[in-house]
Amino acid sequence: MNILIIGGGGFLGQKLARRLIARGELRGRQIAGLTLADIAAPAPLDAPFDIACTACDITDRAAMDALLAPGFDAVFLLAAVVSSHAEAEFEDGMNVNLHGVLNVLESLRLQGRAPVLVFTSSLAVFGGEVPDPIRDWTIPNPQTSYGTQKAIGELLVNDYSRRGFVDGRTLRLPTISVRPGRPNRAASSFMSSIIREPLNGEEAVCPVDPEFPHYYLSPRLCVENLIRGAEIEAADLGQSRTMTMPGRTLTIRQMIEAMTAVAGPEPAKLIRFEDDPAIRDIVSGWRFDYDPAKALALGLEADASFEENVRYYLEDDRPT
Amino acid sequence: MNILIIGGGGFLGQKLARRLIARGELRGRQIAGLTLADIAAPAPLDAPFDIACTACDITDRAAMDALLAPGFDAVFLLAAVVSSHAEAEFEDGMNVNLHGVLNVLESLRLQGRAPVLVFTSSLAVFGGEVPDPIRDWTIPNPQTSYGTQKAIGELLVNDYSRRGFVDGRTLRLPTISVRPGRPNRAASSFMSSIIREPLNGEEAVCPVDPEFPHYYLSPRLCVENLIRGAEIEAADLGQSRTMTMPGRTLTIRQMIEAMTAVAGPEPAKLIRFEDDPAIRDIVSGWRFDYDPAKALALGLEADASFEENVRYYLEDDRPT
Ligand SMILES: NC(=O)c1ccc[n+]([C@@H]2O[C@H](COP(=O)([O-])OP(=O)(O)OC[C@H]3O[C@@H](n4cnc5c(N)ncnc54)[C@H](O)[C@@H]3O)[C@@H](O)[C@H]2O)c1
Ligand SMILES: NC(=O)c1ccc[n+]([C@@H]2O[C@H](COP(=O)([O-])OP(=O)(O)OC[C@H]3O[C@@H](n4cnc5c(N)ncnc54)[C@H](O)[C@@H]3O)[C@@H](O)[C@H]2O)c1
């Protein structure tokens, strides 16, 4: 089993690589090699099998042909420019999120090996005038260029799979929380930082009110679901390779209560509520009511409660 | 008002051109010029304003820039390779139906004039595990490469419109019947020929049983709806530029009864029912239960009854 992670230097790519190393197998076969590719070569990891870390740009078709030439049994396609970037720089988003994905698919099509391909889409594909709850058969009606590009990727992965060019699976990721690291300029940044910073003994600002609901998943279960996505039998996927990855709808208040249940009353005291109308306007347009029936039926899972998300952060990511 | 029809040499492009010439105006403004572009230059038409007929390939980005350079107020993007072609020749379909559409959109984006753009999608975007009736918020889950490419075009037109690069409207066309001309190799060919040939005094074979249901629209109302689509105010389109063009669900029996009501009992005697399992297998996977609520609310229309479709064929298209 030879595995490639494109976008292997990113947040989820790194976690996925470590988890695959710990597991040692995928789809019932021992892992013989793992290649991590990203725009800059990811730092090497220790593993009991071959690890290669390589720099390569998915917008460069020839580079993709070279990267894929050895032939892989499973490819995780995580490389993307994120939502705010794709909205601010239209051409970057189109080049990476649309043409980059097409480069990978075309390269795989012409190679004719039809590997398992796990593509990460986003709940950002949903929006506009569609009824709640959002089901597996709700139209992607994205209100961002990022969501549009991801929705196009979903369609391409479906068609390339239907034709037998790849054996694709597309997972629409919920917002990941608790995400490690520092706050960034994404509108969703507070959805991790209001938990992460207090657990690290630092102050955090919450720009929305405590009843604001949103749909979350921990990084640990996200990686687990990416692996399960790779392991689903093609025959069980039916007439669409796309599914919403399960998450939980939670209010800010519920998230804070879970933090308090796990870590005691002190962290919550470090959160300051300070309305930010600009952020509130963006995130109040986001959907939070999902029915991920297909993924649940195929064995993917949400966190049992947000207490798990808090525990996973403490176990996996809190700086020591 | 300067208008461009890309695919202007095709079946609907030609009918649309004639209808625009007869109308003389669009969006309340007199038509000053009409350009018909197609892979081979369409034959010139008589008109009380400037008509240009030009050969040009939408897969050629430089040719698109040159075609669009004069600047148009409204562009109808009809050029496409059809379903069976896109399924048999994957690269042709991708080149014309995906990259060709992207060429037009990119050329318009960089021009910065944001014309009205009417894009023709198809009910072939629907399929697979989605519940009936198919609504405006049902996921496009195409089971053909043609449907996939059209669904991608819908997403692109939405995003280019949201960003103000074009003022787009996408109409998903039902199966057009009665289509003039000769039978072709499309699986849907019989849906016109069982009416057209008998009205012309010729025999026709129906490969499915009389209770087979499907969703139809006449060419005349299709063209009318394309024009209404161009005339909708952008503000009335809401958060999606895509809608299902209204049609009627009819069985073969109802179509034949309508023909008899209009043209007497003789034509129906020319239809021979002869099961064709290959065709039946394809068309029985097609959906026929649609709720085109958005388009109806915006003033688009279906034929009042299939008797209209029969009359329009006799008035507009029967060879004399
Ligand atoms: N984290 C989330 O909350 C979330 C939510 C929804 C979807 N996703 C999706 O999951 C995937 C992984 O997300 P992440 O959180 O790890 O993001 P990330 O930004 O940490 O990782 C993405 C990686 O892609 C790489 N990349 C960007 N352009 C590239 C190019 N041209 N060539 C090669 N590599 C390139 C980046 O360098 C980065 O390392 C992405 O596809 C993202 O859209 C993430
Ligand atoms: N007629 C129907 O039942 C139906 C149903 C659903 C959707 N549609 C869509 O409506 C539109 C018009 O359909 P039609 O029935 O008139 O089809 P058509 O085949 O008669 O017309 C399409 C035209 O596009 C032109 N074309 C193809 N490739 C081209 C290229 N590379 N550059 C320039 N022109 C090119 C063809 O030469 C042709 O004249 C198409 O987009 C079609 O997909 C039609």
Automatic annotation (TrEMBL), chains A, B:
InterPro entries: DenD, Epimerase_deHydtase, NAD(P)-bd_dom_sf. One of its GO terms (molecular function) is oxidoreductase activity. The keyword Cell membrane does not apply. Residues 3-203 form the NAD-dependent epimerase/dehydratase domain. Keywords: Carbohydrate metabolism, NADP. Gene3D superfamilies: NAD(P)-binding Rossmann-like Domain, UDP-galactose 4-epimerase, domain 1. PANTHER family: ADP-L-GLYCERO-D-MANNO-HEPTOSE-6-EPIMERASE, NUCLEOSIDE-DIPHOSPHATE-SUGAR EPIMERASE. This is Nucleoside-diphosphate-sugar epimerase. It comes from Limimaricola soesokkakensis.
